[in-house]
Amino acid sequence: MKNTRVLLAIIYIPVAFILAFAPVKTNKPNILSSDELLEEVNSSVQFVSPDEVADRIIQKDPFIQLIDVRTPEEFEQFSLPGAINIPLSQLLAPEYKDLLNQSDYTNVLYSNGTVSASQAWLLARMNGYENNYVLTGGLNYWAETIMNPEKPASTNPNEEIARYNFRKGASQVLGGNVTASDDQAGSILAAPKPPIKKTGTKKKVQGGC
Amino acid sequence: MSEVTIPEFRKTRYFNPYVGGVLLGVVLLVAFYISGRGLGASGAIKSAVVAGVETLAPGHAENSKFYSEYTESHPNGPLKSWLVFEMLGVLIGGFISGAIHGRLKLQVEHSPKITSRKRLLFALAGGILFGLGSQLGRGCTSGSALTGMAVLSMGGFISMMFIFGTAYALAYFVRKLWI
Amino acid sequence: MGPLVVYEHITQNTNLFFAFLIGIAFGFVLEGSGFSSSRKLAGQFYGYDTTVIKVFFTAAITAGLGLLLFGLFGWIDLDLIYINPYFKWSTIVGGMIMGAGFILGGFCPGTSFTGAAIGKLDAMVFIGGLLLGILIFTEGYPLFEGLYMAGNKGAPRVSEMMGISDGLFLLGLVLVAFGMFYVAEWAEKKFPLKEGTE
Fold first, then answer.
1. Contact with chain B for residue C68, Cβ under 8 A
2. Is B116 strand, coil or helix?
3. Which of B41, B34, B130, B54 is nearest to B81 (CA)?
4. How many angstroms separate the CA of residue A29 from the nearest CA in chain B?
5. What pLDDT score does A206 carry?
6. Are C42 and B178 in contact (CB under 8 A)?
7. Closest Cα of chain C to A189: distance in Å?
8. Is residue A208 very low, low, confident or very high in pLDDT (cuts 50, 70, 90)?
């Protein structure tokens, strides 16, 4: 028995020493350097077009998540279907971290224009979070293109006419004319706001005795 | 001259404890690798109790706080749990080992200074205490202490210290039960 | 990457099946090491048989070292494994009650199952006691709830609370463990059972 103990000690103690001073591997997100961040900004990888977003909403894509980064008051007044509200000022709060730092959903950040959403994107990206995008042109552009699409002349290329038809259809589904009266906008656009659920924790293990 | 008997557990061969420990550690590691959790025991018995109460007294179970909270957090029912399946395996594994080593025997193991009956009474008392304690402590020696130590959990170490500490403290007073 | 069930390399049902297999291995090793004998288990507290401490701590450091090694090689995601929570008061009080149960009953839940599996009637009675003890808790839950929920500290690791790295703490644990093994072997010689020994 003593020999077994000694043998065990000879193996375990050195291994323990090595592990004590070995680098710790964590799954923390990869924080980007400024150069990397600049490169991404310059290549505009972070944008998604309203057409694409509208399409995915209509197709009922379960993996898209719209995030409204405006104030709660603005969010209450109008928001895109299925959007949740994470005000820019609270973007880095711990309760939202799992929503922004995850790999299952495509988060599309939007605001009235692109400034706030881009700021939000930068903050998230700086922390190494992935799968966050900015809605090109924000709600203003959305209103122009999806809600009130500009009817192309009949002489325009088919592509444009097709796009117009798509947008017209989309606007029907997504709530139509933004300039409509409050009633109509309110009832159609006040889709039930999904509760902010922690998508990250679905990976946690059930344990315990 | 007092009779010198060889206790049952000295008559049979067991694994070298260090070897057994390494094997057990490997089993524990495999559990973590596959299921993300370590071993446990008391939880399975709790599941049995809950299942029993829900079957025999469903009305009471719905009204009582503990059972209703338990049902909410265990949508698959109390018996479809990792621990229950594990403990069924333990019974079989223990049986196989006992069979291989020739230790299968219906008996009451007790020190020569007490009777079988007394041993059984104390076993019952010990079981009741341990059952209650395991619920308060959120685990027993397998789950909380052993597994807890492997993951370096605070709860595990504290649990371990108090279980063993109390047992050591009381050992002198109940020594007739064992030696 | 492990844990397999969390990364969905296996399903929940397969997981339960593995639980069963793991249980078989667990029971086999426990019984084979002598944990099916209450007198052997109790020996820990009188010095004549220190199997418990040897197996226990060897298993803990083996698994602990294994986990860190797996983590180092990227075979397991250490952030996702379950760490049991620490509720200060209920852990302490529960531990004390369990300690009393251990020295009186000579078993703990896992070992009582192995004992029962080979026919030990005292183990079976112990299991009966467990059922009753748990029933007392569940039925009397309102009485216990206060203590049960007090002092919730989350699920911290000791290394976190001490402000050192996991590896360093584990090293300390390994050294302490071997120190204890040395003492244990000394104790077995010093406190033998007065009955016949082999």
1. no
2. helix
3. B41
4. 21
5. 64
6. yes
7. 37
8. low
Find the mean pLDDT for residues A173-181.
Answer: 49
CA–CA min distance B62, chain C (Å):
12
pLDDT digits (tens, 9 = 90+) for B156-174: 999 999 999 999 999 999 9
Q: Exposure string (b/e) for C39-52, b if CB count within 10 Å is 16 or more? A: bbbbbbbbbbbbbb
Beta bridge partners of C2: C76
**Is residue B109 within 8 Å of residue B177, measured between CB atoms?**
no
Using DSSP bridges, classify how beta strands A106-110 and A64-68 pair: parallel, antiparallel or unpaired.
Answer: parallel
Q: What is the pLDDT of residues C169-196, one digit of tens each?
A: 999 999 999 999 999 989 888 888 776 4
With 60 as the cut, is the pLDDT of residue A180 above it?
Answer: no
Probe site for chain C from B117, B138, B154 (most C CB atoms < 10 A): B154
Is A110 within 8 Å of A135 (Cβ atoms)?
yes
Q: Is C31 exposed, middle or buried (0-12, 13-18, 19+ CB in 10 A)?
A: buried
Residues of B in contact with C145 (CB under 8 A): 65
CB-CB under 8 Å, A25 with C166 = no
Contacts of B56 (CB under 8 A, 6+ apart): none
Copy the structure tokens of residue A120: 């939000």
Q: Can you read off the two tokens belonging to residue B136? A: 């308060």
Say whether pLDDT at A128 is over 70: yes
- Rounded CA-CA distance A58/C135 in Å is 53
Distance CA B102, CA B104 (A): 6
Q: Does residue B56 have a pLDDT over 60?
A: yes
Instruction: Report whether C149 contacts C135 (CB < 8 A).
Output: no
Angle, CA A51 vertex, CA A49 and CA A56 arms, to 5°: 105
Q: Testing the interface with C: which of B24, B53, B67, B108 to mutate, by most C Cβ within 10 A?
A: B24
Cβ(C43)–Cβ(B17) under 8 Å?
A: no
Proportion of chain B above pLDDT 90, given as a percent: 54
Judged against a pLDDT cut of 60, whether residue B52 lies above it is answered with yes
Check B83 against A209: CB less than 8 A apart. Answer: yes
Q: Residue B65 pLDDT more than 90?
A: no
* CA distance linking residue C43 with residue C106, whole number of Å: 9
Low-confidence residues in chain C, pLDDT < 50:
196-198
Q: Quote the pLDDT of residue B154.
A: 92
C168 in contact with chain A, both atoms CB, cutoff 8 A? yes
pLDDT higher than 50, residue A196: no
Which pLDDT does position A177 carry in this prediction? 39
Residue with tokens 């344990």: A207
**Is 70 exceeded by the pLDDT of residue B84?**
yes
List strands edge to edge, sheet with A47-48: A47-48, A132-135, A106-110, A64-68, A84-85
Amino acid at B124: L
Closest Cβ opposite residue C137 in set B104, B135, B140: B135
Cα separation, B87 vs C4, whole angstroms: 21
* Nearest C-alpha in B relative to A209: B43
